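note to self — DONT lose this again. spent like an hour looking for the file last time. sequence + predicted structure for the chain T wanted, 327 res
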Amino acid sequence: MMKPRLALVPGEPAGIGPELCVRLVQRAREDCTLLAFSDPRPLRAAAQALALPLRLREPGEDWQRPGDLPLHAVPQAADGRFGHTDPRNAPAVIAALATAADACLSGALDGLVTGPVHKAAINEGGIAYTGTTELLAERAGCEVVMMLANDIVRVALATTHLPLREVADAITGEGLARTLRILHQALLRDFGIASPRIAVLGLNPHAGESGHLGGEEIAVIIPVLDALRAEGLQLIGPLPADTAFLPQKLAGFDAVLAMYHDQGLPVLKYSGFEQAVNLTLGLPYPRVAVDHGTALELAGRGVADPSSLFAATATCAAIAARRKLAR
């Protein structure tokens, strides 16, 4: 079987994404081949700042030497400087993501690895942008689920970037059932787990305390879990969030579904932030991103930790290979 072919998008050109990509290609890969989507200038500037070799190649060239990187050039409007975003480059950031996603949708590439983007810079550039997850879902025309993972725990989200006062209204029976089905299918297909066990957190303290601390568990969450259990899904909960992440409990779960962003992600990031990755479940192709921001203050200094990009690439390659085998 041919190695999976992955798109690599550095993200914000003024951030640490380009230098992380330069570090990524300093050793030959046995698990995949890479094609970057970027303007060449931030990649070359990053390589120069890090004093590391970088040889940008034409798409289709299967170079394997450390420092080689095939590039699909996506020109940006301005040269840019480390640590200083330029809204004029926002169209190029979005174009790189969109072009790479389209290559995956067409089957030309097998998966997508993305670096950090700067939402404010994109919006200041006149492009309405809420996140790459949403952009990719809209482009593919499908429902998706955000899941973050490291070697300790996988945490999926029932809601993502919402103000806390809007979360309860956003948790519906239909949406929760869809999220759990997508998560279950991803654990089966992409992680090779034959019989996934998913822990589902309650929304309220103590999972509602039998209705005394909130009624969402009784009115929404429990009926969905009962219905999906009848379909064969192994669902545990709703569980109080304050004890669900105890190590002895996590040992019995393959993933945890949190009801909102800050209910589950602080635990994941505390347990292993550097190795954590962000997966978009439900797309026709695997997409894995770093689990950190652009770190503008670190850009060009050569001190940014590349562990999350290394983990994202390895995870995406493994999922893409598993999908190719299953075809």
